[in-house]
Amino acid sequence: MPTMQFTNPLRSLDLTKFDVRSFDPRKITLPNVDLRKTVAPAAKIARDAAYVAVGLGVIATQIDVIQSDRVAFKVVRNLKLT
C-alpha cells in the first residue's frame, strides 16, 4: 500500500511572534509526498477475480434455493401455517 509522509510545515514558523511584514514564505517547508508504486502479480489479480466470481455464484445459488418451491413448502410445514 502506498505510504504518504508529511512534514509539519508549521515547525519552522513561530506563531507566538508572527508578524506579517517579516513573514518569508521561502522559509516554510512543504510536505513531502512519497507515493511508491506497487505492482501486483497477475496471479493475485486472477485469484481475486475468481473469488468475486465464486462469491457471486454462491449468492445466486442461495437466491435460487430460497426462491424454490420445495423450501417454501418446508417453511410452511415447519411453521405449521397450513
SSE inventory with pairings:
Blueprint: H1 42-67, H2 69-78
Structure annotation, total helices: 2
- The overall number of domains is 1
Main beta sheet: strand number and arrangement? Answer: none
Q: What percent of residues adopt helix (DSSP H or I)?
A: 40-55%
General description of the model:
The protein has one domain (15-78). With 82 residues, the protein is mainly α. It is elongated and about 90 Å long. It starts with 41 loop residues before the first helix and ends with a helix. 44% of the residues lie in helices and 0% in strands.
Brief overview:
It contains 2 helices and no strands.
Question: Which characteristics define this entry?
Answer:
82 residues, mainly alpha, 44% helix, 0% strand
